[in-house]
Amino acid sequence: GSTVGILGGGQLGRMLANAGSAMGYRFVTLEPTPDSPMGQVSEQIVAAYDDREAARRLAERSDVITYEFENVNADVAAMLMAESYVPQGSELLYTTQHRLREKRAIEAAGVKVAPYAEIRSEDELREAVRKFGTPCVLKTATGGYDGKGQWVIKGESEIAEAYAELSKARTQLVLEQFIDFAMEISVIAARSTTGEIKAFPPAENIHKENILHLSIVPARTQESVLREAERLAVRIAEGLGVVGLIAVEMFVTRDGELFVNELAPRPHNSGHYTMEACRTSQFEQHIRAICGLPLGDTSLMSPVVMVNVLGQHVEPVLARAAAPDEAAERLGVAPKLHLYGKKDAVFKRKMGHVNVLAPTVEAALDWIDETKIWKV
Ligand code: ATP
Ligand code: MG
Ligand code: MG
Questions:
Q1: In this protein, which residues make up the domain named ATP-grasp (predicted)?
Q2: Is the CB–ligand 1 distance for residue 309 below 6 Å?
Q3: How many domains is the chain partitioned into structurally?
Q4: Whether residue 28 is found in the same domain as residue 67
Q5: Is the ipTM of this complex over 0.95?
Q6: From start to end of the chain, where are the E strands?
Q7: Is the pTM of this model over 0.90?
Q8: Counting atoms of ligand 1 from 1, which one is nearest the CA of 147?
Q9: End residue of a domain, out of 139, 160, 177
């Protein structure tokens, strides 16, 4: 059997290893946190991501290397490419690590993003805010996640403070026009080393305080919009020469127009629903794509709602799972709990998720509501 090396040992690595182990692959992760989510289910090299000696050991042990987070050091990626097989290459990482490069690449693939401007000074910001109007969103070009490194500018009086605050990150800044979206969706597409491409059904995403809360599938919008979203994701996968998974976050306007928000070149939280609801999970698909196997069928087998389990939800979720569930029986839903093996259930920390399989997404949403677990 071949060994797959993964940079990063968080929950995405763990779920890749679980899916790939069932297919006969062995796994090793390079991850500084001892006993990491992935380290619990595979071999782990405990070292910093940019430890070149450790990266060399990862390369020696691996037949193919991938990553589960996108802020991989460019030098390390280059070294791994010289010493092992990195089918995703470094170009895709380079592009998606930086919002401006990413937006330009999306546009070059013929897909729309929200109007944006590169911001190099407070004066440029003032000018761009006048052009786009308020609200608008100032973002750091690199390093942001879960809404960190962003400022929604609601009026011109906030410009100086927003600029001063985000400039601290010492990276370029981007201003985006605010899209008054009716819905946020994401499409995960896979492109294999052979050039085959397949997209998963779009997920409707609902965030709470900038953290993904729910992914609802099928998304509750027109079929034509969903098919167009899949086409755009496929166009991006092709245009950017993706290998492996690409997650495409999009805004849907009231008129059904689509704007891409951002990309992630890896398994995505909004794709966890595929684990039980699709014939192939996003994790199996990624392994297939990078190992040159034919891609799996992405068909949806059941309506599903994925709900994230944050630190404050762990105890009530476990209590719920341990007792007979009258509501689940009555609603005809099957909640599937996944926990990532993280030790401290810190408030707002992603600890796991529940895929609620159901006859309709409404039934799944009713179950989530009735449990009262996700009120906090
Ligand atoms: P993630 O955790 O998904 O990586 P992130 O920190 O990279 O998040 P974005 O996805 O860029 O941030 O933005 C977070 C959320 O803020 C979006 O899902 C959306 O709800 C809102 N948002 C971001 N940009 C815009 C915009 N231009 N117009 C309207 N809403 C926006
Ligand atoms: Mg992001
Ligand atoms: Mg996002």
A1: 103-291
A2: no
A3: 3
A4: yes
A5: yes
A6: 3-7, 26-30, 43-45, 64-67, 116-119, 136-140, 150-153, 173-177, 183-191, 197-199, 203-208, 211-217, 244-252, 258-264, 304-310, 334-339, 350-357
A7: yes
A8: 6
A9: 177
